[in-house]
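ok so i was messing around last nite and threw this chain in just to see what happens. nothing serious, just curious
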Amino acid sequence: MSNQNHQADPTQRARLRWRARRGLLENDLIIERFFDKHEMELTDNDVQALTVLFEEVDNVLLDLFLGRKEPEGDLDTPDVRKVIQMMRDL
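result:
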């Protein structure tokens, strides 16, 4: 992996983790496992994709994470799909 695109700013990652806190416990568990496994390897594109995802309501997120729904509209980008797949693979 190239470190060129790595999100090296710990403050930015901490803000993203704080923003990831959700109202549904299931989402919190999935997102926490995701960060525990992938936080140090996230790229700037991954962070942007997560920022877009975290704008969604909890039920939509859970459906995306569990594969009950596929990304549509603004969520249908390669970067968002990559992050969703990383969540599904946990």
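not much to say yet. The chain has one domain: 24-88.
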